[in-house]
């Protein structure tokens, strides 16, 4: 009974690591990169008995020749090989049980994720209220970009010539009666 639960927890860890970082992964097969991550995150690699090179060699041994992934059964066989190498003083089954306990219930650790730091230099350079010249025209009063309207000069073609500033003034000039002139 305990063995069934133990295998389920191990299989769950296998699935979690198999889908890590791959949106198309189904969780039934694991890539070599995720295999290495599993061994690092769960403490299988100790730097003395088992190194990253050992993990890669075992992965190459257990996978099929034409495949780049391993199945759950191949995963267990690979763990068995690593267990015998890591725990030389224990029997094969005891060593496998120890390695299975290391992996059971674990999830991938996300480390080294870069966070944005708000430094005074960056905030000064990105403050749109201090922009001048043509760069100032790209943003409205709130600091939001105007999009294409801020990047491209939109030509006003409504006047007699483009850019005519006194639009609509001709009619006023013609209809305005001039004093002292006979009509």
Structural features, described:
The protein is mainly alpha-helical and 183 residues long. It has a domain at 9-102: Recoverin, domain 1 (Orthogonal Bundle), CATH 1.10.238. It is built from eight helices and two strands; from the N terminus they run H-E-H-H-E-H-H-H-H-H. It has helices at 2-19, 32-41, 52-62, 72-86, 92-103, 120-125, 148-151, 169-175; strands at residues 29-31, 69-71. The chain has a two-stranded antiparallel sheet with strand order 1-2. Helix 1 packs across helix 2 (32-41) and helix 2 (32-41) packs across helix 3. Its main location: cytoplasm.
In a few lines, what is going on in this structure?
The protein has helices spanning 2-19, 32-41, 52-62, 72-86, 92-103, 120-125, 148-151, 169-175, and strands spanning 29-31, 69-71. With 183 residues, it is mainly α.
Number of helices: 8
Supply Rg: 35 Å
Under CATH, the topology of the domain at 9-102 can be stated as Recoverin, domain 1
Biggest sheet details: 2 strands, antiparallel
Query: What overall form do the CA principal axes indicate?
Result: rod-shaped
CATH domain class name of the domain at 9-102: Mainly Alpha
The end-to-end distance, rounded to whole angstroms, is 115 Å
Question: On the 0-100 scale, what is the average pLDDT?
Answer: 81
For the biggest β-sheet, the strand order reads: 1-2
As residue ranges, the low-confidence spans are none
Helix content: 40-55%
Query: Looking at this structure, what is the CATH superfamily of the domain at 9-102?
Result: EF-hand
> How much strand?
under 5%
GO molecular function: tubulin binding
Main location: cytoplasm
Keywords: Cytoplasm
Subcellular location: Cytoplasm
């Amino acid at each position: 009974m305990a063995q069934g639960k133990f295998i389920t927890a191990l299989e769950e860890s296998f699935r979690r690591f198999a889908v890590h970082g791959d949106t198309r992964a189904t969780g039934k097969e694991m890539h070599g990169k995720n295999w290495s991550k599993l061994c690092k995150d769960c403490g299988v690699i100790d730097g003395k008995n088992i190194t990253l090179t050992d993990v890669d060699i075992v992965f190459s041994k257990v996978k099929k020749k034409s495949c780049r992934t391993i199945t759950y059964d191949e995963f267990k066989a690979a763990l068995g090989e690593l267990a015998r190498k890591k725990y030389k003083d224990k029997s094969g089954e005891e060593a496998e049980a120890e390695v299975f306990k290391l992996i059971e219930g674990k999830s991938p650790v996300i480390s080294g994720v870069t966070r944005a730091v708000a430094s005074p230099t960056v905030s000064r350079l990105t403050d749109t209220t201090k922009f001048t010249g043509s760069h100032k025209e790209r943003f409205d009063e709130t600091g939001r970009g105007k999009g294409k309207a801020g990047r491209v000069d939109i030509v006003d073609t409504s006047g007699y010539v483009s850019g005519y500033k006194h639009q609509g003034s001709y009619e006023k000039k013609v209809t305005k009666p001039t004093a002292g002139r006979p009509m």
